[in-house]
Amino acid sequence: MAVSAPEENIMAKYLLLKHYRGDHAIAKDDLVPMDQWTPEEVTAHIDFMRQVSAELRERGEFVDEQALSPEGTFVRYDGEGRPPVTDGPFAETKDLIAGWMVIDVDSQERAFEAAARLSSAPGPGGTPIHEWIEVRPFYGELPVVTE
Amino acid sequence: MTDLGVDLRVLTPQVLGALVRRGADFAAAEDAVQEALIEALRHWPETRPDNPRAWLIRVAGRKLVDAQRSAYARERRELRVQLEPEPGPSEQDDDTLLLLSRCCHPALTPASAIALTLRAVGGLTTAQIAEAFLVPEATMAQRITRAKRTVSGERFDRAGEVGAVLRVLYLVFNEGFTGTVDLADEAIRLTRQLSAATDDPEVDGLLALMLLHHARRRARRTPSGALVPLAEQDRALWDTALIAEGVRVLQAALARDALGEYQAQAAIAALHDDAASAAETDWPQILEWYDELLRLAPSPVVALNRAVAVGEVDGPLAGLRQVEGLPEDLPRRDAVAAWLHERAGDREEAARRYARAAERATNTAERDHLTRQASRLHTGG
After folding, report:
1. Which of residues 261-300 of B touch A (CB under 8 A)?
2. How far is the C-alpha of B167 from the C-alpha of B173, rounded, in Å?
3. Mean pLDDT to the nearest integer, A44-57
4. Which of B81, B121, B277, B313 is deepest in the core (most CB within 10 A)?
């Protein structure tokens, strides 16, 4: 039986997932869709996201970020020699992943802090939109010392 | 680098250490050493200096003075120190420890200390370190820059705590092999350097621990990457030369009668390595060492490891009683309990605990192994 030695994890990677239209899409029911914000409000929101990304880079915690196009298709195997079955596109799915950021941080607490910072992005009137960010830990590496 | 007939990575920390010892700012000295290495790569293929180390110190010293002069010109500030080094007696051993203790400064997070150690003492490139930790090079560069800034403020002419250095080297070793750089090899190389430079049995205890674990590396995974637990490893794959060296280093350390946690951990590893088969393992003696380890460095993880040994010596039910007293959220608590339940004949409970352990695993190798254990019990294997 193998057990690992103490404090094997130094840094851990976390996925910060941005959802749209899911159960936790936004905190406020009355949030106006972004295309109805003023151009200044849209710019302020985007600048803020860029600023958060720059902060993470400066701290040496940034790994990756991507935004996803809203339309997706479900695809599955349908047997040997047959074309894949597709379903969709689903532009109005209940839970849509809008994009993600991957960070490499020294604690879960720090990952939550970074997610909360993302969630404080300004919306209409410059106030935070309190968007929910899903935080998912990556699997790490198997440590060497195991007894 | 090898075609220069000298390992620049061994010289790098010595040169950096010499400059820092003479009062140079750490970050500036590191830049100067990098420039000196570039000069070496340019000039040495034609004319090898008789004393490469002295050559590098001289050139790096000049680069440092040049950099300070241009900083002076920019900022119109007075030059504080003249850093052209003088020829003197060799201080390279002290410098290694000096440099390591600076890179492992308690003000740094473990991740920062590791990055800085691998860069400044290990002589790895930022790209190599980034690859080893699977982050972009720019991110690693930033981490190193911030770490340098943190330790740059204070003057540093005395070595700090060896304990902090050992912890960082241990963590580097435990990172193992993820990319093109073998961090376990690197940790052993640095610990050997530290061992040669210091007079502390715990340094040798850590070196022995690393060697004794490293010896088993080929047996630890199947060719397809699946985890092989210690008891099931093919012991013919173990590196007997490394085991012999590890035991030798450990015995010399123990003979000095200043026991510490790394020596105790190494002793446990040595007893495992010494058994020709899992069945021949000297569990009573391992249990004694766990008692010692628990006294030296008490922690729930050590207590959990000890429970495994108790299970072997006094039976699985005695082991389970030890596990029961440990915190619910302790990593691998379920895996140990599962194994003890199976030994006690309760396959159903064992399967349940293996499945739960798999859910809580923090890496895929363990998750897959635990899932296979659960499925083996479920299907009557």
Report:
1. 265, 268-269, 272, 299
2. 10
3. 95
4. B121
